[in-house]
Amino acid sequence: MVTATPRGNRFRATRLVIISAWATPVLIIGQFAMVAVVPVALVLIGTLIDTRLRALRWWAAALAAVYAIPLALWAIGPDRAPSLSKDMNPAFAALIVATAIAVAIASHRRGRNSTRS
């Protein structure tokens, strides 16, 4: 019978959120803004499902909201570009990148602080 340690469970639970948070700015900077919907959704869902990530919920909600604004503007725009990356204002891209990096750093700090206790 295989039993998991509490530290191992915590690491697996937060790994998806951390990787997704770091993947979001990479995709936005790499001009794959439409594909970035997947890691943004994974960060939001991961923080809402796992109770140990409760402190990151506000950060994840902020990331989802910041990403949703240019996505909605692109979707309802009358003369939209063929891709979200081409249509997105650089200020929105910078805001998404900054928020995603803040989520990733907050998740790293949360993990480091919980292992010290």
Topology, pairings included?
Layout: H1 6-29, H2 37-49, H3 57-76, H4 84-87, H5 90-116
Helix pairs in contact: 1-2, 1-5, 2-3, 3-5
Keywords: Membrane, Transmembrane, Transmembrane helix
Transmembrane segments: 16-49, 56-76, 88-107
Helix fraction bin: over 70%
| Continuous helix count | 5
- List how many beta strands DSSP finds: 0
Could you say how many structural domains there are in total? 1
Percentage of residues in DSSP E strands: under 5%
If you average the pLDDT, what whole number results?
84
Please write the string of helix (H) and strand (E) elements.
Answer: HHHHH
Q: Shape, please?
A: elongated
Class by SSE composition:
mainly alpha
Low-confidence stretches: 1-5
- Give the CA-CA distance, first to last residue: 29 Å
Describe the biggest sheet?
none
Radius of gyration: 16 Å
How would you describe this structure in keywords?
117 residues; mainly alpha; elongated; membrane
What does this structure look like?
The protein is mainly α. The protein has one domain. 75% of the residues lie in helices and 0% in strands. It is elongated. The two termini are 29 Å apart.
Quick summary:
By secondary structure, the chain is mainly alpha-helical. The protein has helices spanning 6-29, 37-49, 57-76, 84-87, 90-116.
